[in-house]
Every structure is written in C-alpha cells, then in structure tokens.
C-alpha cells in the first residue's frame, strides 16, 4: 500500500468533531484507527471546500478520494455516514456498491438495445450527438457524472466477472469527468476480485484505484458490532415490554448515533423499499417479510445487501400461517448461507415457534438454524 502524501487535517475538522461528539455521548468508544480515518476524511472535506472556488471539477484539479478498508465491525460505514453528511457539495450520492453496479448493467443494456428515442429519453440529447456509436460506457459515465460529482460507496466488493470487466473503463470515464470516489470495503484494493477469472485484466483498475484514492486502513483491535451483539444477545423472547426495550436499545447501539435511512433493493426488475436501514443494518417485522408475496430471490437479495437483520414481532406459528412459516424458512436459509447476523424479537424460543400441526416438522430445520445463529460461535465466525 502506498503511503498517503496528503497532510492530515487539523484535529478540529468536522468529521473528527462529529466523532468526538458521539464519543462524548457514549455512542462510540475511543479507537485510534477511526480517529486517523476521520483526519483523512477531513482532508477531503477541506479539499472539496477549497475546490468550490472554481477549480473543480476540472479533472486535473479533482480532489483525491478516500478508500476505507479493514475488517468488519470497525466503524467504516459510521465514518462514511459522518463524511457524507458533512461533505460540502450538494452533488453527492451514497449507495451500496452492488445496487450501483446492477443499475450500471441496466443502463448499458438500455443503451445497447434502445433506439434513438429511447436513448434520448434516458440519456438526454448530448450523448446522441457525439461519435460514441455503440459504446455504452461514455454515455453511462456522462449520465452518472451528471447526477453526482461525489460518489460514496458502501461495501465495495468485486466478485462478478461482468463487473470486473467494465470497472476499469467506467471509472476511467468517471474520473475524466471530475467525479470523486470514496468507498468502504472489507478488502484492500490488492485483494479485490481475488482468484477471479481473467484477473490480470482487472489489475489496471486496481492500479487506478491506488493512484486516485488515498488508502486508509480502519483495522482497530475490536469488532464493536460483534461486541454489542454478544453482550446483549440476539434473541429476545417473549415479546414483552422489557424485551422490546432491550431490542430497541440494541438497535440504537448498532446505529452508533447514525440516522435511519430508506433503502431499496432491486430484485428481478422489482424494487423493494425498506424504510429503516443504516448501511448494512435492516430493521423490519415478520409480517412485512413473511406475510407478503416474497420468495427466495427476494431473500437472497436481502442477505446479500444487509449483514445484520433486526426482525420484530415474530409470532408463534400454526398451520393457519403455514405459508408465512415456509417463507420464514426460506429467509433463514438465505441468511444462513450468506453468514449474516440476525436479531429477533419473538413470542417464543426458536424450538417453540411452530410446535405442532401441519408443516411443523418441516420447520424444525429453520428452528435448528435459528438456534445456531444466536450462538456466540456464530457471531464470532460470520461476516
């Protein structure tokens, strides 16, 4: 990893100040790696403020972005929350990396298959007047750059060859248009797309990231997220006043002072909207998840998008709710295979959720997995 050349921001920078305020309230605990990352983000905020004088967005004067990387639970998303709220530019977007790439592929498909009228309606007139013929990358980059000059990605990860093969050209085009990139990732750039097909073709993109972004490790000794879950427990039953209060308190602790946000997940051309999220956290209820027409693909998409689900109001199940019980089983399978964390407010312990009746036997698999997913060993092992 190349050493950053930038001068650290003063300790009174806005991200560092916001971090100090959360520490003072008890939302966070001191962490030297988080403090250093806050200084790097304050440097970028200062660069953005200075560039508002007229130099930016000329590509040669574009401020250098930030790439926060390190193990899970170290506060990367929390730091990105603070930075995004404080970044002094109205032209900014924060998005999970996988939905962003899904949209990019959809735009590429639209450009390739659409006629002139379709292209004009989606991309505007400008790209149609330029000699881009059938190359979709320039018009897609032009559209994205017009939407945001600051792109903030959560959970930057490359596992799909289709993504790997277009990222270099796409981000080269975005950088040429003055777009600034910030990202959080569990992987250092050199570990992206590890062992992927034709990885040698992906290496120039890694070199571009390292040249364009300041690499900032956030790898403190403690996984604060797992510490909180282990201390509080993850299964709250029965759903009485005391357990509901503890469930609510744990949700607040996991937010770490961040505000809840609405998030959308695209599944097979449909958009699922989730009002209560924060980065990789989702809070919802049993009825929304299991008493509506959702299926395996929906649950797989949720498991890929969110690392921790808080599910409240999980009732005792009977044959009258066999369809909802089946959906719950599908959800648990998706979360289990994705190695996600699960926090539940329920009427009963897992083994007593569906004690008797038609389909009760089939539910035993889900109950067994729920017991495993509440264990300390599971919390220590999962992502």
Assigned CATH superfamily of the largest domain: P-loop containing nucleotide triphosphate hydrolases
Order of helices and strands: HHEHEHHHEHEHEHEHEEEHHEHEHH
Percent helix, as a range, is 40-55%
Biggest beta-sheet profile: 6 strands, mixed
CATH hierarchy: architecture of the largest domain: 3-Layer(aba) Sandwich
Please identify the top-level CATH class of the largest domain: Alpha Beta
Distance between the termini: 24 Å
**Helix run count:** 15
Strand arrangement across the biggest beta sheet: 6-11-10-9-8-7
Structural class assignment? alpha/beta
Principal-axes geometry comes out as globular
Number of strands: 11
Number of domains: 2
Written account of the structure:
- This protein has 383 residues and is α/β, with parallel strands linked by helices.
- The protein has two domains: 14-217, Rossmann fold; 224-381, 3-Layer(aba) Sandwich (Rossmann fold), CATH 3.40.50.
- It contains 15 helices and eleven strands.
- The protein has helices at residues 14-25, 32-51, 76-86, 97-113, 116-123, 137-147, 161-176, 203-212, 224-232, 241-255, 286-290, 296-305, 322-337, 360-373, 376-381; strands spanning 65-69, 92-96, 150-154, 180-185, 213-217, 235-236, 261-267, 270-278, 281-285, 308-314, 341-346.
- The strands form two sheets. The protein has a six-stranded mixed β-sheet with strand order 6-11-10-9-8-7, with helices on both faces.
- Strand 8 and strand 9 form a beta hairpin.
- Helix 9 packs antiparallel against helix 10 and helix 13 runs parallel beside helix 14 (360-373).
- The longest helix has 20 residues, at 32-51.
- It is globular and about 65 Å long.
- The chain starts with 13 loop residues before the first helix and ends with a helix.
- The model is unreliable at 1-10 (pLDDT under 50).
């Amino acid at each position: 990893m190349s050493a950053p050349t930038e001068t650290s921001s003063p300790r009174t920078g806005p991200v560092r100040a916001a971090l100090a305020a959360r520490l003072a309230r008890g939302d966070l605990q001191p962490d030297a790696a988080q403090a250093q990352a806050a200084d790097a983000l304050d440097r970028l905020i200062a660069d953005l403020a200075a560039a508002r004088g007229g130099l930016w967005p000329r590509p040669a004067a574009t401020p250098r972005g930030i790439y926060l990387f390190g193990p899970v639970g170290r506060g990367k998303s929390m730091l990105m929350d603070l930075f995004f709220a404080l970044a002094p530019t109205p032209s900014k977007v924060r998005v999970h990396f996988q939905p962003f790439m899904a949209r990019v592929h959809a735009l590429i498909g639209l450009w390739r298959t659409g006629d002139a009228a379709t292209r004009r309606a989606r991309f505007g007139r400008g790209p149609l007047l330029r000699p881009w013929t059938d190359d979709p990358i320039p018009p897609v980059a032009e559209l994205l750059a017009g939407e945001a000059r600051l792109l903030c990605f959560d959970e930057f990860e490359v596992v799909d060859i289709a993504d790997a093969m277009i990222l270099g050209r796409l981000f080269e085009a975005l950088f040429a248009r003055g777009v600034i990139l910030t990202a959080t990732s569990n992987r250092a750039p050199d570990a992206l797309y590890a062992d992927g097909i034709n990885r040698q073709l992906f290496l120039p993109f890694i070199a571009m990231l390292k040249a364009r972004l300041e690499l900032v490790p956030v790898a403190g000794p403690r996984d604060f997220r797992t510490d909180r879950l282990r201390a509080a427990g993850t299964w709250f039953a029965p759903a009485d006043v005391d357990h509901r209060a503890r469930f609510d308190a744990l949700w607040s602790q996991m937010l770490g002072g961040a505000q809840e946000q609405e998030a959308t997940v695209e599944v097979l051309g449909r958009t699922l909207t989730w009002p209560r999220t924060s980065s990789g956290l989702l809070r919802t209820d049993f009825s929304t998840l299991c008493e509506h027409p959702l299926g395996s693909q929906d649950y797989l998409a949720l498991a890929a998008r969110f690392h921790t689900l808080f599910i409240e109001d999980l009732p005792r199940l009977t044959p009258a709710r066999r369809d909802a019980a089946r959906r719950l089983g599908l959800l648990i399978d998706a979360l289990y295979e994705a190695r996600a964390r699960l926090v539940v407010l329920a009427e009963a312990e897992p083994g007593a959720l569906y004690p008797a009746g038609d389909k009760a036997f089939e539910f035993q698999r889900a109950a067994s997995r729920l017991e495993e997913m509440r264990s300390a060993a599971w919390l220590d092992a999962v992502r």
